[in-house]
Each structure stands twice: as C-alpha cells, then as structure tokens.
Known about the structure:
The structure holds two protein chains of two kinds. Chain A is an all-alpha fold. Chain A has a single domain, classed as Orthogonal Bundle (MetI-like fold). In chain A, 72% of the residues lie in helices and 0% in strands. By secondary structure, chain B is an all-alpha fold. Chain B is globular and about 75 Å long. In chain B, 78% of the residues lie in helices and 0% in strands. Chains A and B meet through helix 1, helix 3, helix 4, helix 5 and helix 6 of A and helix 1, helix 4, helix 5, helix 6 and helix 7 of B. Chain B: Residues 69-260 form the ABC transmembrane type-1 domain. Chain B: It is found in: Cell membrane.
Amino acid sequence: MSISSGTEDGSHGGTRLNFYRRQQILSYSLILPAALGVLTLILYPLYQVVDISLREGRVMNFARIHDLPLGFGNYVRVLTDPQFWNSVLVSVIYVGGSIAISYAIGLGIALLLNERLPGNRILRTIVLIPWAVPGIVLGIMFLWILDSSYGVFNAMLRDLGILSADFPWFVDRRTALISVMVPTIWKSYPMITLTVLAALQSIPRELYEAANVDGATHIQKFRFITWAGIRGPSMLVLMISALGIFRDVDIVFGTTGGGPAHATETMSLYVYREAFNYFRMGTATAVGTVMIIVALMIGAIFTIFAQRSKFK
Amino acid sequence: MTLGRFISWAILVLVAIVTLFPFYWMVMTAIMPTDAILSRNPSLLPDLSRVSFAAFAEVFRARPFLSWTINSLIVSLGSSAISLVLATLAGYSLSRFASRPQQALGASLLISKLIPATLILIPLFIIYNNIGLFDTYIGLILANMTVGIPLATWLMKGFFDRIPRELEQAAMIDGATQLQALRIVILPLTKPGLAASGVYLILTSWSEFIFARTLISSPAKQVLTVGMQSFVGEQSVDWQLLMAAGTLSVVPAIILFVLLEPFLVSGMTKGALSAS
Lengths: 312, 276
C-alpha cells in the first residue's frame, strides 16, 4: 500500500492512498455486521460453553453461574455416565447409518437423473421436496405412517402377509433407532442427489468417448471418470449432511423424543435434556464441548479426503 | 426408448412415488373421514364422495393455529430479511477484497456451522435471561440469524464472484462510489443469487424448532413448528387434526420451494461445487 511518497505528483498520490484506505475501510465495514453478529452470537457463547463446563456445583440463579469454582468434575461425571456412552453409540449408528444409506440412494438417483430421461426436470423437483419440509413435520408424518394400530405401513405389511400382528416401530427398542433413521434419510438424500448430479453434469462427455475408443469397461469408466469427477463434491456434501444429522434434534424430537429407554437418545438430545429438562448446565456443556471436538474431527476427515481427491 | 432407459425411468418414477407418499398420506388423512382412516385396512385411494375439508377449519378452531402462523411469519421473515442484507454485504466483501483478516472472518463464519444448536442454546438461554431477550421475537430472530448467515454469505460470495469487477469499476470511473456501484450495477445482476439465498433463509427459519421451543415460553408467541410438536406426546393424538395442521404448515414452504427451485438449485450447487 506504499504508493504515495515515491510519485512526483504528491497530491495525486495522496488521493490514491485515500482511495485504497477507503477501500480497505469499506471492505471491513461490509463484512463486520455479519461477522460481529455471528461472532457475538456463536463464538462468545462458545467461550461461555467451555467456561460453564469447567464450573462445578449448582446455582439456581444463572447470572451467578460464573461464580462457581473451577474444576473438571463435570467431565468426570459425564465420562463415567453410562447414559453418555449410550448417546455416543446411538449417535454413531444414527449418523453413520443415515449418511451411508442417504448417499447410496442419492448417488443412484443422481446417476439415473443424469441420463436425461423424459420428465427429468419435474422428477428432480419432486425428489428435492423433502428437503424443504421442517424436520418436526416430517417426524410427525412418519409417526403416523408407522403408527402401531392405525399406521398405513403396518396395514400394508399385514395385507402382504409379512406381518401377522401390529408392530410398534417407534416403541420397540429393536426398531426405534432404524425408524428414526427413515425420516432422516428421507430428508438428507435430496441434497446429496443434487450435488452429485451437478458434479456428474460437469464431467466432460469427451472423456467417456475417449474411454470408449480405448475399450474401457463400465466399471473402469465409473471408477476413473465418474467417481473421479464426483468424489470431491461428494465428500463436501457428505460432511455437511453428516454434521447436520449429528447436530439436529428435530426429527428425534418429533418422533420418539429419545425413547424408548434412551434407545434413540443422540448426543445432541442428551445435551438438550441435561440442560433444559434437568437444568444441569455444567454436564450439558461438558458433553457439548466433546461434541464440538467430534464435529471438528468429522470436518477434518472429510476435508482431508476431499483435498486428496483434488491431487489425484 | 431402449429397455435400459425405460427401466431407469421406471425406477425414478417409483422413487418419486415413494418420496411423495408421506405427503399424499398426510393430505388423505386430513380430508377423509376418521372411520375411513382409523381402520385396520385403510384404503389407499380416496373415496371422492366422502372428501371433507372440515379438519382444516377445525385446526383453526381447536388450536391457536393462526397465531402460530403469524408468529412463524414474523420470526422467519424478520430473520431472513436482516440475514439477507448482512450476508449480501459480507458476501460482496469476501468476493471483492481478499485480505488475510478478511479470509479469516469468512472462514470463522463457516466454522460456526460446526457448533450444535442445542449447545449454542445454553449460553444464549443464560444471556437472554440476564439481558431480557428471553421470550421475545427479537431474541429468537437473532438466534435464527446465526443459523442462516454463514451459508448465505458464501452463497452470495459465489454469485458475486461470477460478476466481472470491470462492471463496477466502470461505474466508479463514472463517479459512483463503490456502494453506489454495488447498489445500481451489481445487485440487479445478482437477483438469482438474492432469490436463492432468500429462499434458503426463509426455509431454514420456517423449519427451525429447537431455538423456538427453548427461547420462547409464552404460548401466545409460540411458532408453528413448536405448536405442531405440542400435538404429539399427549395421551391420544387426533391424527386427522394433526395431519391437517401438518399439511397447512408445509404448503407455504413447498410453494416457495417449487416456484424458486431453479434459482435455489443452481445457486446451491454452484456454491457447493466451487467450494469443493
């Protein structure tokens, strides 16, 4: 930015300096409202979260929570709580299972949509609709469809002779978590479809023609052309979706509320219940701090995968 | 059409049917008489002579549905409008000025997406209780902004990146300030971007549940998603009423989505592809 002093026309250089200064001030003042808003509403609370997680004891008056003594008691309490480890296991199965199935479905549909079949555009809009529906409403819709006595799913299974009696999908310990994954997958696959489809469409057709000339098999073409083209975007959308499923509680809230007997209690829900059902802010924030570390790890893993695919 | 293409097409149609079935069944439950739906073997096709829309009217009588809707509109339009302005300015700044601190601020917006909402709620709840924002629309609007701004900012940056700098430089040579150039020359060209970000912001805040459930306590200020959830968990659920309410609650979102889908889809995919 050292421009003014060396020029022969001092006044002209002065205005140019002013121009750059003004630009710089402008650039910051444009981003500051958003950054300040997000920083005060997220990073400051984040600092508070860590601080509260290190405070031991209980106060009824939240204004005085920072007067409590410091210590790692909350972490000890959480890490020795079987309910916490249960929520970790539930989260792993819930996030991992939902994301794997969502990706399989999303990839399949994207490959089909890429073939430019009749009605392509309308089909694309239809498969995207679930994305626009609130998680709570979605949960309630599936609660009704999978209802044990009057649910249409049980009725269909009875008609087909698969099921002889009513089955309480959301109430039975063995099926509750899978039942919660169904609406979750239903909400997650559209964004994956969309991203993979866009990546597929950006792959040059000539690559396939060249591969045909060289006599490549379908599997080779998929591996070296298709997969190479969609790998990076896939990692990104998988990361965003996985983090979303890890964070959100809406669908679980709308269906099982964490039951039966904690079978569907994810880490997110565990934090919420500790904080707002039992008002144990210390242990809730301790679990939350662990969750942030997990989220950062998920982010790092996918970023590494995406970066590696760039150089291949 | 070859056999292979026909099979592909048939699979897609099947996927579309399965995808739409929950909506179909929700509407069916709302418009068919209770005995037709609450039966051991409900008919999958509607008996058109018995269709009734009474449940939709009943939703407004039995529950403060209108007040929920108005509250949802206040909160989602309020937070979307403010977020869109802030995200547009921030996105423009990220696109045109790329200094180190600038990039750091941009990255911090993205990292903020990693933090679970249930976790942000705890300090927000405590702070709001201390400064009097608990149980206010403003408090909820501010909380919703944290969800929308980060992604909307990067969406807008992607759109600004595709507009040549020469355009506003020309305007500035003609004597406009940078902000004037942004307003007069650039913004009209980013209408698709503003539409995409706007839809994204409205849909996100319209769907938001956990902030609204926790940061609002008085029933008069409750939003739709929280109202919907209050049906569940009672001893007996009036499914017909609930499905009518559910249908009403998703109609605005789906209309908005279908109308603006082209903008939204191209905007989000271009954002996703350029970021990867």
